């Protein structure tokens, strides 16, 4: 399993003092992730104005045994970012044509038409089955990175108001061991590119969870578990809208189940 460095290094930047060696190194790595595979420990130390011993301690603080392991992880994450960039919806200003009523309506109609096209009947049927599984299982964990944290937290916060507690994680190792027959794992990934999850990840996941779901758009390749899918919108704004509508649909369907 490849764990994303973005969240870990961002947390390091936010928690460490400005000018701290770890903060300087974390910022450099995040800004130069694509070239890290070719950056030696000596080059990194020179670029950041620190010693190689400081780099070694930084790497260990990030959870890696060696600088070589750290570089390999950077290379894998750079590949994942490239997949995201290649399939990311267009980042266009929602009301770029003007702020008057005619142009606002034109842009809104465009965005909602893309959302309508994205969320088909099949998606809603899958969402209903997902909500039923959510209701059935006692221990639920959402696994994801970047924007999907917002989706998972939104669902989790709404369900908490209904007496349902869900966990959010970015590492499978962070999940406490629970009874398999009452546990459910939800993997969320945007844009249709697959999370860097290998067979070992799924093998371990199936050993720990009775039910495993993936929520994604335009999935590529064989999906080894239950699936809730919807289409990828052309523009980033409509894409975010589609994700939040799917999230709300899950919550509404869950409300129906507990009110029956």
Topology, element by element:
Layout (H helix, E strand, L loop, with lengths): L4 H11 L5 H11 L9 H8 L3 H10 L5 H21 L13 H18 L2 H16 L2 E5 L4 H13 L5 E4 L13 E6 L10 H10 L2 E7 L8 E5 L5 H24 L1
Parallel strand pairs: 1-2, 1-3, 3-4, 4-5
Helix pairs in contact: 1-2, 2-3, 3-4, 6-10, 7-10, 8-10
Instruction: Report the order of strands and helices.
Output: HHHHHHHEHEEHEEH
The order of strands across the largest sheet is 2-1-3-4-5
Helical run tally = 10
How big is the Rg? 21 Å
What is the CATH architecture assignment of the largest domain? 3-Layer(aba) Sandwich
Mean pLDDT: 83
Estimate what percentage of residues fall within beta strands: 5-15%
Q: What is the total tally of β strands? A: 5
CATH class of the largest domain: Alpha Beta
Q: How many separate domains?
A: 2
Shape: globular
How helical, in percent, are the residues?
Answer: 40-55%
Structural class: alpha/beta
Task: List the quaternary state of the chains.
Answer: single chain
Describe the protein.
This protein has 260 residues and is α/β, with parallel strands linked by helices. The protein has two domains: 5-87, Winged helix-like DNA-binding domain superfamily/Winged helix DNA-binding domain (Arc Repressor Mutant, subunit A); 118-259, Rossmann fold (3-Layer(aba) Sandwich), CATH 3.40.50.10490. Helix content is 55%, strand content 10%. Helix 1 (5-15) runs antiparallel to helix 2, helix 3 crosses helix 4 and helix 6 (101-118) crosses helix 10. The mean pLDDT is 83.
């Amino acid at each position: 399993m490849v764990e994303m460095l973005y969240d870990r290094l961002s947390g390091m930047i936010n928690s460490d003092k400005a000018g701290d060696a770890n903060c300087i190194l974390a910022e450099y790595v995040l800004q130069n992730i694509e070239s890290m595979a070719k950056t030696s420990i000596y080059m990194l130390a020179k670029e950041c104005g620190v010693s190689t011993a400081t780099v070694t301690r930084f790497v260990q603080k990030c959870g890696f045994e060696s600088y070589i392991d750290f570089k390999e992880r950077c290379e894998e994450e750079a590949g994942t970012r490239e997949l995201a960039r290649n399939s990311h919806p267009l980042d266009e200003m929602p009301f770029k044509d003007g702020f008057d009523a005619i142009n606002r309506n034109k842009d809104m109609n465009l965005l909602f038409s893309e959302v309508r096209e994205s969320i088909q009947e099949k998606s809603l049927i899958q969402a209903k089955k997902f909500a039923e599984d959510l209701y059935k299982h006692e221990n639920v964990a959402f696994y994801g990175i970047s924007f999907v944290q917002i989706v998972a937290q939104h669902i989790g916060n709404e369900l908490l108001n209904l007496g349902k507690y869900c966990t959010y994680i970015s590492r499978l190792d962070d999940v406490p061991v629970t009874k398999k027959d009452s546990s459910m794992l939800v993997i969320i990934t945007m844009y249709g590119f697959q999370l860097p999850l290998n067979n070992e990840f799924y093998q371990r996941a199936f050993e720990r969870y009775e039910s495993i779901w993936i929520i994604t758009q335009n999935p590529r390749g064989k999906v080894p578990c239950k699936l809730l899918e919807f289409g990828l919108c052309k523009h980033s704004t409509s894409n975010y809208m589609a994700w939040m509508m799917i999230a709300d649909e899950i919550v509404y369907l869950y409300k129906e189940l507990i009110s029956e």
